[in-house]
Amino acid sequence: MDGRSPVTLEEVARRAGVSPSTVSRILNGTARVRESKRQAVERAIADLGYHPNVIARGLARGRSMSVGVITQDIASPFYNETLKGIEDSLAGPGYAPLFVSGHWNEAKEAECMALLVARRVDGVIVLTGMIDDATLLGYALRLPLVITGRNLRGPNLVSIQLDNEQAAFDATWHLIELGHTRIAHIAGPESNVDAQERLAGYRRALTEARLPVDERLIVIGDFHEASGLLALNQLLETRLHFTALFAANDQMAYGARLALYRKGIRVPEDVSLIGFDDLPSSLYTTPPLTTVRQSAYDLGKVAGEAMLQLISGQAVSVPALPLRVIVRESTMLRRG
Amino acid sequence: MDGRSPVTLEEVARRAGVSPSTVSRILNGTARVRESKRQAVERAIADLGYHPNVIARGLARGRSMSVGVITQDIASPFYNETLKGIEDSLAGPGYAPLFVSGHWNEAKEAECMALLVARRVDGVIVLTGMIDDATLLGYALRLPLVITGRNLRGPNLVSIQLDNEQAAFDATWHLIELGHTRIAHIAGPESNVDAQERLAGYRRALTEARLPVDERLIVIGDFHEASGLLALNQLLETRLHFTALFAANDQMAYGARLALYRKGIRVPEDVSLIGFDDLPSSLYTTPPLTTVRQSAYDLGKVAGEAMLQLISGQAVSVPALPLRVIVRESTMLRRG
DNA sequence: GACGCTTTTGACAGCGATTTCGAGCTGATG
DNA sequence: CATCAGCTCGAAATCGCTGTCAAAAGCGTC
After folding, report:
1. What is the spatial distance, in angstroms and rounded to an integer, between the CA atom of B60 and the C1' atom of C16?
2. Global confidence as pTM
């Protein structure tokens, strides 16, 4: 069944007694073929255990049937869900994703892009990259681009964005509704658009509730756990009073939660904690984390589908991605 | 700088006033070339912003410069570290990984394999697959294979394994040294080799310490958080006494930890908890989890390197992967 | 049975590289 | 000055498949 060296289309043709073109036509459904020949070819394919060479096909057609995905950290719990979504949506039509990580580094990201271009991917999905908009628009001239977390419009380019600002507003509002008035915020890197929007939402919620925004209660992290821990310690050192904390992502919330644990500050009794992302593991922290669900998986799925539409030249329609607060056990009514 | 349509080798040749062959030779360092021409070509490459077409090269050389990676779940926190390791080790020599997930499903895995073969990957790395050994050996006849978590030897195949049994022994022993005598175990699926070995190590430690092995203290999970939670509840229902718990992986330990939290059982004061894997987030659970570090990243790196050696026909040398207990705060001396 | 149309089919030219083969140069040797 | 070995470098075949084009085959009609 499994031949030693790869079977080629030509061998199939010979065995079926037809020309290579005919085999190709049958494989791709490009044209009508007499039923008898179709069967002969199909039998030959089965007998020989033939699998078309995707490389050769890619070369001939000028399409590689693969799309590049630039992620910041292939090992990040958030992006992995997204990658899975991308993989699933692409698999159907026979496309395969090529994942590369940019490591939050603009130069590295450019390298990745070059790598993908060299591999002649049919499109690139960029998950919140650091590349500047202009460069990105330049790339879009040459291949379809789908990008998340950025507000860009252009031909051959679709950007998928979530309403981070509103979601952050909702998260903060949830705390306010619970009676909290002194709410701290651990923000993401200032250069990050998502982080900016979340911070803005936090601010707006306080303002709309006529609560003062105390800048000293805003600490900046880098979206990793360690920075959440650090941020919380910084916050504690100021000796400012606060009864609730909104972290710009779950990973930083984890870090903050550990810092609180270390100090003997209870969650949620002493401090209510809310995160952002709803990572799978947030369901299993102690206590389970209240957070904003942004379905990373759906994000990937939508990105993949948009890419397919872009490639096939269809009009792209990006469905709205719901974003909502998932109340679990790390937040509670303010005491006293 | 960025031409509209891709620059080809031929255009470079024309611009540099040499033949395509020469350009190719310079690109690959295949043969000596007069210095003056080399410079002319290099300038032409720079001027045109030429990037070799990896697809075409793959066709011509019969190598695709990519290696397939079959993982069970692209979104699993453990495997992602591994994927990163693989990516890093492959990147140097210009290879790119192609990730596909088998979803713990043998049929799906076979499909993935077919996909990879069709894409003419130069080798496949299988991260603890479900495919049976015989099939695997069959594949190894056609392309280099690196597989983890299995004990197979063969030409064109290297299997990388960790001493799970010993590590599980060490983990259990750590608990015994702390004075625990009633130690429960949440095992992984019975069909999984890693799970079997860890269970064996647990048994051996108890036996060597002359402690009875109480089968009722062994509950089986599926390596996911939810099953850890379930397992612990089952354990609690038996009303059997235990002061320590060894979970076959960190994810199940997280689930168990939550179940304990729900029942008001403190970790580590009432029950010491130890996991296995040392996922990045284990550093941030409350309390930080004592666990067995198996560097998923290194595993990937080693797998990638072994693959490169296999491809280039070198003798493969697989360095030993250290596995050791990382003591953090979820285990403590047995009280009273 | 010839004629005009439509459907099938095969030959062949690419796609963008690599690689083999041998021609042209160079310099050294007799 | 002729001869030969050693370098460089170009022409052309090749990798496996697609897609165009025109020939061949099939079919209905008169």
Report:
1. 9
2. 0.90
